[in-house]
Specification:
Pfam families: F-box-like, LRR_At1g61320_AtMIF1. By secondary structure, the chain is of the alpha/beta class. The chain has 13 helices and 17 strands. The longest helix is centred in the N-terminal third of the chain and has 22 residues.
């Protein structure tokens, strides 16, 4: 039998393509740059993915992605794809996600990290991986930590991840460098929250969302917090804090059949921006008891709730907000919604410069019954310069507000009309399958908008977004 041998393969280096030579030439030129210039370029790479891609451009950068200080593990396109076919994709994509984060954590060579963010559909069954990631982040003296483990699909049996303090907490090796902590859809006890608030002297940002495992947030000693956000924590009954440095506070409660948490801030002399919401109830007046002692110092106020006819606020004696320059009304309108019930709040802001109306998830225009326009009481808006309406589809609630402003704002110089829903505007990279034409098939709001715009002074700058 004739003996056969394999042909000898020549090394690939002996025959380089023109493209490869060009890449090598560019690589040589980048490598010749001074280190300080390379580091300057590197510092502008915002994500781990950017760093990994840039590592291909220069020999000096080959392993620098392993020391990148910003570790952001979120892929919004992947999450959107999982939502469309949750049962089929979630197990595979969850495993791939965990493996990817594990690899980076195990190979990262940096001594410190500025940001560590994980956003994916993870639960208690993945606790060993998440525990390891958090221990890694704290060992690297993380400054900004964010854990967003919300579901990408429906799964009633899902048990949230139980968050604990890092394993080296309280030891001589533990360094409290944390400046920002954001938690969403995890289980965390009041004791752990107290430990975080009391053990991190540099913690300026604290946010908890969709957490149902604690009933209170309290602290007797002054805290360094500058920004506090508490949203959709249905078991929360009390927030009682001493916050002399607090600049902004956001609270949104789940009150379907319940009542919002009691809010008590001590020494909040720096508080300037407040956002209060309660979508489960048509009464938001409770918030003004909390705001009463701080209303004179506030510069920005946002109110979020359902908009039902004209009595939804139920505020008999609205306090004066003498320094509020930006007022945002974020509402879910019903079919007979009117802004009439909000005029006491608008009138209580004598130096108001910008008024924003956000209409959340309004029904299709063809489902809205026709009704007569209601006349709002005249009131001078002597400082108002900007009117912004997001979610404009031509409802009476839109037109009534525009008419009110046109008739009373003498120095109005800008009007922004945005037909997108506030959710789409905030998440512009998320495709829902609904365009402006889908939400308003007869384009009636186009005609309504342009009819209103004819009433504006020619000096008013107009922006119309669809």
């Amino acid at each position: 039998m004739e003996e056969r041998t394999r042909p000898t393969l020549k090394p690939c280096e002996q025959k380089r393509s023109k493209a490869a030579e060009t890449v090598a030439h560019v690589d040589d030129r980048l490598s010749l740059l001074p280190d300080e210039i390379l580091l300057k370029i590197w510092s502008h790479l915002a994500t781990m993915k950017d760093a990994a891609r840039a590592s291909l451009a220069s020999r000096k950068w080959k392993h620098m992605w392993l020391v990148h200080p910003l570790l952001n593990f979120e892929d919004k396109n992947l999450l959107q794809r999982v939502r469309t076919n949750y049962k089929k994709l979630i197990d595979k994509e969850r495993s791939n996600f965990i493996n990817r984060v594990d690899y980076i954590v195990e190979h990262h060579l940096g001594t410190v990290i500025d940001e560590f963010r994980v956003a994916f559909d993870l639960d208690h069954e993945n606790h060993s991986h998440v525990d390891k990631w958090l221990d890694f982040a704290f060992a690297k003296q993380v400054k900004r930590l964010e854990l967003v483990l919300k579901r990408a699909g429906s799964n009633s049996k899902r048990k949230p991840y139980d968050m604990k303090m890092p394993c080296n907490f309280g030891t001589v090796n533990f360094k409290s460098t944390l400046t920002s902590l954001r938690l969403e859809s995890v289980n965390v006890t009041a004791e752990v929250i107290d430990s975080f608030l009391g053990s991190f002297p540099s913690l300026e940002v604290f946010s908890v969302r969709w957490i149902h495992s604690f009933t209170s947030i309290t602290a007797c000693s002054p805290l360094p917090l500058k920004h506090l956000e508490v949203c959709y924590c249905e078991c929360l009954k009390l927030i009682d804090l001493c916050v002399p440095h607090l600049l902004s506070f956001t609270y949104e409660g789940l009150t379907y059949g319940g009542w919002p948490a009691k809010l008590h801030f001590r020494n909040a002399s720096s508080l300037s921006a407040v956002s209060i919401g309660c979508f489960g109830s048509n009464c938001i007046a409770y918030a003004f008891d909390f705001l009463l002692i701080y209303c004179a110092q506030l510069q920005s106020v946002e109110v979020k709730c359902g908009l039902f006819k004209h009595t939804n606020l139920q505020i008999n004696h609205c306090p004066m907000f003498r320094n509020v320059k930006h007022l945002t009304l974020n509402v879910i309108p019903d079919e007979d919604a009117s802004i009439l019930g909000w005029t006491p709040l608008i009138k209580a802001c004598p130096v108001l410069e910008k008024l924003t109306l956000n209409l959340e998830t309004p029904p299709p225009l063809e489902c809205m019954p026709t009704r007569k326009m209601r006349k709002l009481d005249a009131h001078p808006l002597s400082c108002l310069k900007t009117l912004e309406i997001v979610g404009f589809l031509g409802y009476c609630v839109n037109r009534e507000l525009v008419m009110f402003v046109i008739e009373n704002a003498d120095i109005l110089d800008e009007m922004i009309v945005d037909a997108r829903s506030p959710y789409l505007r905030k998440n512009s990279n998320v495709h829902t399958g609904f365009s402006f034409e889908d939400r308003c098939p007869d384009l009636e709001s186009h005609k309504i908008a342009f009819d209103l715009l004819q009433m504006l002074s020619p000096s008013v700058k107009l922006t119309f977004i669809t």
